[in-house]
Amino acid sequence: MRPGEPRARTRADIAIVGGGISGLALAFELSRRGQMQIVVLEQGYTGAGASSRNVGRIRAMQLTPELTRFALTAQRKHARLSDELGANTLFWRAGYAWVLYEEEEIERMAPLLPMFRDSGVRGVRLLRGRRLERRLPVLRGGDRPVAAVIGRDAIGHHDAVVAAYRRACERAGVLVLEGTKAIDLLREGDRVVGVRTREAELMAGIIVNATEGWSRELSASVGVAVPNTPVRREVFVTEPAHPFMREAITFYRPAEGWFNQTIRGELVAGMTAHDEVPGLNHDSSLGFLLRTSEALMRKAPRLGHLRVIRQWAGVYDMTPDRLPIVGPVTSRPGLVQMNGYSGRGFALAPLVAELLAGWLTTGNRPEALASFDPERFAAGWPADVLTTDYYTGYRRDDG
């Protein structure tokens, strides 16, 4: 297209900006609810952002009752995806271990155990001493944990899920445009009416912002301020090995870290940095590799013989209360938010998509999405959205 040349104008019923798991899942769910023209715009390839830059954990155990119940329902949705999409999403119940290294963590977690059970999360136990050593032998010889919360959570494969959604969208007639960057959104008065790309203007009755790391920028293009803050998270993968662990392990002291073995035998691991600078940064770093390797050697020295074969980085789209931002924006009719998952996009997006599709086609907001109100921060938000402490990032961390 030449400078100054008018853009072509096309139309659709619904335009979804973002071709990751969130945008593709919503397109698929909408296609099941009637005949409509649905277009998904993806600036790279489908899944190029956070959807292919995560470790695929589908954890029901969360810090608040409402989020735990929602995450458990989302896990059940994942368990059905292979049948719904007609492709194997590699969902498996690996189990989950929330490893605690300080007594203060036990004080925080103990009241949550009955909440987990009351919320329907089965098989959650707090293990100490020899029972813990027998359950998690991979930790032997490392820093001695004081306890671990063990659950029956699951893992899926991000690439398998995204590919399954993409094929299902194609079968349903959804138009997925890769390599198509949304420059900004278009307004007529307060109403959002379209998306401007380099090649064309796509007009639609509903515009969905499912961009995750770019969500704040896209919202701002029509005067909508949101607190979403992208922050980098890095991961590395080792060569495959014979099975040596089952549960996916997470720890939050002295800093947030995680590792698990995949169904192919690789070790996937990551650890946050206290001084991570917010922003859209997909660069992986030597500092991360050294920091994470050192932490794993302290906690699980038996892993020291494994060789790292690749690493990558993605971003979490963080909100102040660590809950997604989902639903129509009343101050900008036509705009729908579907972002701000704060590191839970892979786990929650399929259920969010199912519920949001119902909302958009019936006009009735599901009660399960009430706490994700897209305008709950209209009165403002804390200056520092990020926190180095996992536990204190929640509105309610007392269970």
Provide a short characterization of the protein structure.
The chain is built from 9 helices and 18 strands. Strand 9 and strand 10 form a beta hairpin.
Structural summary, described in words:
The strands form three sheets. Strands 1, 2, 8, 9, 10, 11, 17 and 18 form an eight-stranded mixed beta sheet that branches. An eight-stranded mixed beta sheet has the order 5-6-4-13-14-15-12-16. 48% of the residues are buried. Helix content is 26%, strand content 26%. Helix 1 runs parallel beside helix 6 and helix 1 packs parallel to helix 9. Strand 14 and strand 15 form a beta hairpin. It is globular. The chain has two domains: 180 residues, FAD/NAD(P)-binding domain (3-Layer(bba) Sandwich), CATH 3.50.50; 145 residues, D-Amino Acid Oxidase, Chain A, domain 2 (2-Layer Sandwich). It is of the alpha/beta class and 399 residues long.
Give the DSSP E fraction (strand runs of 2 or more residues).
25-35%
The gyration radius over C-alpha positions equals 21 Å
Name the CATH class of the largest domain. Alpha Beta
- The total strand number stands at 18
Q: Summarize the biggest pleated sheet.
A: 8 strands, mixed
Distance between the termini: 56 Å
The backbone outline, from C-alpha atoms, is globular
Percent helix range? 25-40%
Q: Total domains, how many?
A: 2
Instruction: Look at the structure and give the mean pLDDT.
Output: 92
The CATH topology label of the largest domain is FAD/NAD(P)-binding domain
> Strand pairing plus helix content: what structural class?
alpha/beta
Q: Number of helical segments? A: 9
Poorly predicted spans: 395-399
CATH superfamily caption of the largest domain: FAD/NAD(P)-binding domain
CATH architecture of the largest domain: 3-Layer(bba) Sandwich
Helix-strand sequence: EHEEHEHHEHEEHEEEEHEEEEHEEEH
